[in-house]
Write a sequence for this structure.
C-alpha cells in the first residue's frame, strides 16, 4: 500500500518568522500522523532556516511516527543523524541560496564519498535514501553506494503539469511521467525501494501515485498550505485519499 510522508519544514518556517515557540513541529507531526501519514520528513539545513537541532531531537523522542531526516552528506549532518537515529536519512544536494532543493543529488559524480556516508549511517542502523533525478546512471550509482531507497525527483513532472495547463494527456506531461516510471522500474530491479517526491500537490499527485511499485510519496508545501484553511489533520487526510484512489 502506498504511504505518505509529510514534510513539516514549513511549520517551522512559520514559527521562525516570529522567532517564537509556535507552531510546534512536534504537534504538527502528531496531527499529520492522526490524519493518516505514515511518516514525517524534515530537512535540517546547514543554515537552520526552519528545522533546528532541538526539533530533530524532540521529534525522534516524542513522536511515534517514522522520521525521515533530509540532510546534506556532510560530516556534521552524518554525526547528527548517527546520534539521533531517525528511521531513514535521505541524502540531498543543498545550496545556501536556494529556496528549496533544486535538482537531484549527483550520486554518480561522488560515489566514493557517498559510499562512506551510507556505510556510516548503516552502521548506526539507519536506512539511507538518496534524492535523485529520473536518470538511469544515477539509479545505478545509488545501488553501487549501498542506498536502500531512491526518491525520484518529481519536480520536472510537476513543472510540466503546471505549464501544460494541468493536462495529464499533454505530451510533455506524459514524457515526464514516463521518465519517473522508467527510473522507478530500474530502482526496483536493482533491489531498492522506489519513493518519489518534490512539488507534488492535490492536482498533480494522481499520475505519480499510480506508478507501479511506488512505495512512498513525500509531500510538504502543498499540505502545509492547505492546512492553513482546513487544518493539518484534514489536509493530510485529503492527500492520502487522493493517493490511495490513484494507486487503486
Amino acid at each position: 500500500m502506498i504511504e505518505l510522508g509529510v514534510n513539516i519544514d514549513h511549520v517551522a518556517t512559520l514559527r521562525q518568522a516570529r522567532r517564537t515557540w509556535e507552531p510546534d513541529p512536534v504537534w504538527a507531526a502528531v496531527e499529520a500522523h492522526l490524519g493518516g501519514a505514515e511518516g514525517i520528513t524534515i530537512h535540517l539545513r546547514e543554515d537552520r532556516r526552519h528545522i533546528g537541532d532541538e526539533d530533530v531531537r524532540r521529534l525522534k523522542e516524542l513522536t511515534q511516527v517514522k522520521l525521515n531526516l533530509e540532510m546534506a552528506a556532510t560530516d556534521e549532518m552524518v554525526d547528527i543523524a548517527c546520534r539521533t537515529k531517525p528511521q531513514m536519512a535521505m541524502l540531498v544536494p543543498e545550496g545556501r541560496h536556494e529556496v528549496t532543493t533544486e535538482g537531484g543529488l549527483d550520486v554518480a559524480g561522488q560515489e566514493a564519498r557517498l559510499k562512506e556516508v551510507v556505510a556510516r549511517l548503516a552502521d548506526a542502523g539507519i536506512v539511507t535514501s538518496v534524492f535523485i533525478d529520473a536518470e538511469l546512471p544515477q539509479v545505478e550509482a545509488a545501488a553501487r553506494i549501498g542506498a536502500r531507497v531512491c526518491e525520484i525527483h518529481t519536480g520536472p513532472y510537476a513543472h510540466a503539469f503546471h505549464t501544460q495547463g494541468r493536462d495529464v494527456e499533454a505530451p510533455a506531461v506524459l514524457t515526464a511521467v514516463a521518465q519517473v516510471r522508467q527510473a522507478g522500474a530500474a530502482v526496483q530491479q536493482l533491489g531498492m525501494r522506489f519513493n518519489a517526491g518534490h512539488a507534488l500537490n492535490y492536482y498533480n499527485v494522481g499520475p505519480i501515485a499510480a506508478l507501479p511499485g511506488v512505495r512512498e510519496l513525500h509531500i510538504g508545501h502543498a499540505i502545509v498550505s492547505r492546512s492553513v484553511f482546513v487544518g493539518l489533520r484534514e489536509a493530510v487526510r485529503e492527500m492520502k485519499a487522493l493517493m490511495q484512489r490513484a494507486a487503486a
DSSP finds eleven helices and eight strands in the chain. The first strand starts at residue 3 and ends at 7. The CA atoms of residues 31 and 232 lie 6 Å apart.
